[in-house]
Amino acid sequence: MTNETGFSYRRLAFVDGRIQAQAGYSKGLRSQWRYGTRTDEVRENYAAFCAEFDLTPNRVVMPLETHTSNVAVVTAADGGGGVSRALELLDVDGLVTAERDLALCITICDCAPVYLADADGCAIGLLHCGWRGTRGGIIAEGIRRMEELGVRCELISAIVGPHICAECFEVGRELVDEFARVHAPEELESVFTEREGRLTLDLVASIRLQLLAEGIGPDHIVASDECTMHGDTYFSYRRGQRELRNLAFIVMPSRP
Questions:
Q1: Does domain 9-251 have CATH number 3.60.140.10?
Q2: 1 falls in which pLDDT band (50, 70, 90)?
Q3: Which end of the chain, N or C, is less surrounded by CB atoms within 10 Å?
Q4: Is-above-0.70 flag for pTM?
């Protein structure tokens, strides 16, 4: 959807209709989202984003993701970091918060964003899941952090946003051993596919299995079928857009 604010994004809906969190994934021409790079463009992009969700930049949090499994609990004190002032959350690939009107954002390009929210409205989370973070346990860490905020695991719903699809994600054979750390041998058969000498990785299959292992119900998980490499709706690292990024975001609006 493209709105009068000039911020164009794909809205993503949780399966559980009780969840009011607003989740989305940017599309269009806006590609710079981190303070310190093309500062004027970043300010303009966040002005459009904030206008869409009736926020100010000091109510937006952006970490510096480096493909870790580190997840930070953030509050209003973290607002503006990486957006209107210098980054403070370094080597952080996931965010959770119990605060309303505090937008969690990550930059992403082919990796899978995983959005988490609970039906009680206690907390939300957003995880940057490339193969390293997915193999490294960021799913379990994100859920653990939400539980620290009082969330009951059985009430959590998850969305996997646009990402590189299994057909496009060709990987080296060493990754089978890497993922054997988190998956049983029979699970690896659904995570990897070998065809005509090509080995491909299905990120969603791995993420789904790990969400299920953490107690998230199968009917509480939904995954986008949009591939970032197909077409030109989104920026794609593997398609050669090395310095351009999509914005994944989630925010719990104030109670009515």
A1: yes
A2: low
A3: C
A4: yes
Q: How far apart are the C-alpha atoms of 119 and 238, rounded to whole Å?
A: 36
> What count of other Cβ atoms lies within 10 Å of the Cβ of residue 163?
30
DSSP reduced 3-state for 194: strand
Residue 39 φ/ψ, nearest 5 degrees: -50, -45
Q: Whats the size of the chain, residue-wise?
A: 256
Interacting residues of 60 by C-beta distance below 8 A, sequence separation 6+: 46, 49, 50, 79, 80, 83, 102, 103, 105
Helices and strands, counts by H and E, the chain: 6, 13
pLDDT confidence bin for 255, thresholds 50/70/90? low
C-alpha 249/C-alpha 10 separation (Å) is 11
Segments of the chain assigned E as strands: 9-12, 22-26, 60-61, 71-73, 94-97, 103-108, 112-118, 124-129, 156-160, 192-195, 198-201, 221-223, 246-251
Distance CA 125, CA 142 (A): 7
- The answer to whether residue 5 scores a pLDDT higher than 80 is no
Q: Could you state, in order of their start, the residue ranges of all structural domains in the chain? A: 9-251
